[in-house]
Design goal:
Distance between the termini: 45 Å
Helix content: 25-40%
Structural class: alpha/beta
Strand content: 15-25%
Shape: elongated
Number of strands: 14
Radius of gyration: 24 Å
Largest sheet: 6 strands, mixed
Strand order of the largest sheet: 2-3-1-4-5-6
């Protein structure tokens, strides 16, 4: 039995937004693609007012999430609100499917297509017709000149819907067609990989966090032997093993404790460092952490988290990391914070961005944030890499990855 698509973590799913003017059949198309009534369909214009999310298994691409967005083109306050909601959905999308009605491409459609393609957003067009007919020669030539894929479909009868699915698979960014390893290239089948997982106040009740789960699955997939211990049991486990583990992976918050226990000849790294290369570019984040050495009094650092959560008294992002950085640099550093899907536009005012491990973001979104920081000339790193830097063990923790 295959896994339900909604069971796949959001960070591993491609996000596909279905956009278009009001009443062109976006919701009908989504229902046809998914084979069930996901969105309310009505002849009334503007039935969809909020973004509707639908997990789906789009083979052979895998688990995706469709966003059925509010139609644009309405005037007034409500129309502006719908447009803003759609723009937010587009901003966090990996692909965009624009639905066009029987009247074909209008000037506002073309304007939006030009804007999105200029930003590098993968986009395709679906002409929704009562019956399958060839689109106008003008529209066909315009889209071909822009290298935009398109299909004609009858969403009401589901005719040619399979062709739309195949088009989406072709449209998908390469990042969703490749396999990006966490640690699978650092050990072989039969090797022992030791995971150090602290269970404290900040640990989620009754479960492991996503980086730990994904790493464990990768170890098992490679037919290696996974041993999971708490940090307090690490010393005893190392004494019990006849041979040293091939690799030790620990939580960043106990990295100093682990580094002192583990012999120098045993490779050791952290879950966050593995996620830094799995979700983005470890070299960029390594360089970003080293930018701490150039910080001065009054510099500002942005702490960015991909998800919202209750802030504990010793919160890693809001309390511990700022304290460690001030102690490491000896400087009076100012900190700003952002959470969720929003990423500031005024990045230039920051001397450094420190991002969370991005377990709730897919690789495409994290790479997008990395590129934006690089384009603005702002160093960026992640929590785990930054922690290792402030604790003086960064060189040792990146050594298994070939960084010096």
């Amino acid at each position: 039995m295959s896994e339900r698509p909604e069971a796949t973590p959001r960070a591993l799913r491609a996000i596909i937004s279905i956009i278009g003017r009001t009443n062109v059949g976006k919701s009908t198309l989504l229902n046809a693609i998914c084979g069930q009534e996901v969105s309310i369909v009505s002849e009334l214009s503007g039935t969809t007012t909020d973004v509707v999310a639908k997990p789906y298994e789009l083979l052979p691409l895998g688990a995706v999430t469709f966003y059925d967005t509010a139609g644009f083109g309405d005037e007034g306050v409500l129309g502006d609100m719908r447009l803003k909601a759609t723009q937010k959905a587009i901003a966090k999308s990996d692909m965009v499917l624009m639905v066009v009605g029987k009247e074909g491409l209008l000037s506002e459609d073309k304007k939006l297509i030009i804007e999105l393609t200029a930003k590098g957003v993968p986009l395709a067009v679906v002409f929704n017709m009562e019956k399958i007919v060839r689109v106008s020669l003008e529209d066909e030539q315009w889209l071909m000149q822009k290298n935009i894929m398109f299909e004609v479909v009858s969403a009401k009868t589901s005719e040619n819907v399979d062709a739309v699915k195949q088009m989406l698979v072709r449209l998908a960014p390469e990042d969703f067609k490749k396999e990006y390893l966490l640690a699978g290239d650092l050990f072989e089948a039969g090797d022992i990989v030791l995971m150090v997982v602290p269970i404290d106040y900040s640990a989620p009740k009754g479960r492991l966090i996503l980086p730990q789960v994904q790493t464990l699955r990768e170890i098992l997939d490679k037919n290696a032997k996974a041993i999971v211990v708490k940090d307090d049991d690490l010393s005893d486990m190392l004494s019990e093993l006849k041979n040293n583990p091939r690799l030790i992976i620990c939580d960043s918050q106990v990295v100093m404790k682990v580094a002192k226990m583990v012999p120098e000849d045993v490779p050791v790294t952290t879950f966050s460092i593995l996620f830094a290369r799995n979700k983005g570019d470890i070299e960029i984040m390594y360089q970003g952490a080293n930018a701490m050495d150039s910080l001065a009094d009054g510099d500002r650092i942005l702490i960015a988290e991909a998800c919202s959560h209750h802030v504990a008294d010793d919160d890693i992002g809001k309390v511990k990391i700022p304290n460690w950085i001030r102690k490491y640099t000896g400087k009076n550093i100012e900190f700003d914070f952002c959470q969720g899907c929003e990423f500031p536009n005024d990045l230039e005012k920051y001397s450094l961005v420190i991002h969370c491990g991005a377990c709730m973001l897919n690789r495409v979104e994290m790479v997008r944030r990395l590129k934006e920081c690089v384009r603005r000339g702002v160093p960026i790193t992640n929590y785990g890499v930054a922690i290792c830097k402030t604790q003086g063990v960064l060189q040792r923790m990146v050594k298994p990855l070939g960084l010096n």
